[in-house]
Amino acid sequence: MTRFLLHRLWQSILVLGLMSFVIYGLMGMMPGDPIDLMISSNPDITSEDTARLRALYGLDKPILERYGNWLAAAASGDFGYSRVHARPVLEVLAPALWNTLQLLGLAIFVSIAISIPIGVLAAARPYSRLDYAVNLLAFAGISVPVFWLGLLLIIVFAVILGILPAGGTMTVGDGGFLDRLSYLILPAATLTIASVGGHTRYVRSAMIEVLRQDYIRTARAKGLGRHRVLLKHALRNAMVPVVTIVALDFGFLFSGALVTETIFAYPGMGKMIFDAIMGNDFNLALVSLLFATTLTVLGNLLADLAYAWLDPRVSYR
Amino acid sequence: MIGKFPQLKRFKRHRLAVGSLAVLVVLAIVSLAAPLVAFIFGVETDAVDLMNRFAGPSLGHPLGTDELGRDLLVRLLYGGRVSLLVGMTAALAAAVIGTGVGLVAGYYGGRFDALLMRFTDGVISLPLLPLLIVLAAIDLEKVGLPDALVQSEQVSLYRIIAIVALFGWTTVARLVRGAALSVRERDFVDAAHAQGAGALRVMGVHILPNLVSPIIVATTLSVGNVILLESVLSFLGLGIQPPIPSWGNLLTNAQELIWSAPALAFYPGIMIFVTVIAFNFLGDGLQDALDPKADRH
Q1: ipTM above 0.90 for this complex
Q2: Which of B133, B138, B284 sits opposite A274 (nearest CB)?
Q3: Residue B83 falls within a domain, yes or no?
Q4: How many domains does chain A have?
Q5: pLDDT digits (tens, 9 = 90+) for B110-159
Q6: How far is the alpha carbon of A48 from chain B, nearest alpha carbon, in Å?
Q7: Considering the domain boundaries, does residue A86 fall inside one?
Q8: DSSP H helices in chain A
């Protein structure tokens, strides 16, 4: 187990190291140049000045050396300043991360709370009318464009019915718990609908897989009740793949969060990454992208570990 | 085996897949016939008519007009051409890469296989959309592509196909690798080796034809995902650039107009939704038909 853990940990670190270089390199290919942006408001600047600025910030050096310098600074906790926010990157990142975790946490919780009972019911009677309907809805869930779903919800609940806010986090002058919650409902509902289809399919197929096992037949043969077999014997074991897949889905959900936050003007990590890339805020874009990558790689690592831990049949190699 | 084409029989039993195929064929034909539709309703494709903005459905404009008075139906159909073309081309490109990686990994096996599969795992574990946004935003001139290409109108098409293919190959690669691992143990592969066939020939002539089913299924299923990715990037203003219309970029302006013209936000989205769900059902049906042994329930 320890060996397996170390192996996966090493692999994750390798992926992150590689990605930090790739993302650093990609940032250099973005349109716009940090020095050009810096001097654009100053007409008196000469080309000697720009050359000096370039040398001052080390932009005249080869990419490997620049990356090395950035890495050394980052290792000592200096991630640079955000150009747009004029604050250290980490100070901008922290509140956005907290907002995204609230949104994702709510969406994942509701999605799982819906998909487990529905998936179990569908699996209990495969190919029944209910199973068919669940399958149809699950396909609809995985096929709907997230941004359009968000727009539809805004149209229905904000434009037509006028009962929920179309975007933001709180009403100016209010900001109580219920007020904040009302701003969270539509974005969380968007993400929930987008992920519940996939989750239901996982639960259903995991349950059907487990219900085929011999020990289920034994439990039934012993005369145990249908519900007892379903919920006690089967569901517990079916949860193993479900837990891991929910963790694996984190990357997908993060992508969904980016779109959802942008549409609902919700100040989370996703919207911050998008705005930073669009606004040539290189430091912020670089660090927040790396942070998002770290989160999803970590999610994958946790999924593997959870699987190995929950299912004793998995061999650790 | 019962009958001549058991696959066809199994496919027909999947009614949703049959219906989806019909929907997709109709969509493709109508999109291809966009100029004809424009001609029938007597509208010019990009004709701006500011006196007639946000018009409701009428005989001349079956779905009404947009913020510049352009006919919505005709714009939707032209958008469909682009979205379908990009979706299928990118899925095919991804399938080619994925087949290559999976075939080589499965054929050689061992450490080489482990290395390629760890690489695939690494790509899968990345946050897809943020990285696609970065790739869609980079300045192609800084990458060193020729000016003629960078400034051409179609560059946004090529770019989106390339970046989607760059990330979309992993599913196909995993499936092909798994199938190739089992096929290479079969006797006819040994026979081919014994007759002196080289690695390339064995892979291409003896193994690949046995992998057609999983490749077709995976490619069909990924068309839907590709269309979703294209639409979201275009919606964010990073995918297909106007004046080329796509279902995604038709929705870009719709968000600002949501209070005055909610219908504009409805139609392009429903087109994406119907197309994606149809490709997913089609893939599901093909899986049942081509690969009935696959343990997917």
Answers
A1: no
A2: B133
A3: yes
A4: 2
A5: 888 888 888 888 888 788 888 899 888 887 777 777 777 777 777 888 88
A6: 23
A7: no
A8: 2-27, 34-39, 47-56, 63-75, 89-124, 129-143, 146-153, 177-211, 214-221, 226-228, 235-248, 250-263, 269-278, 282-310
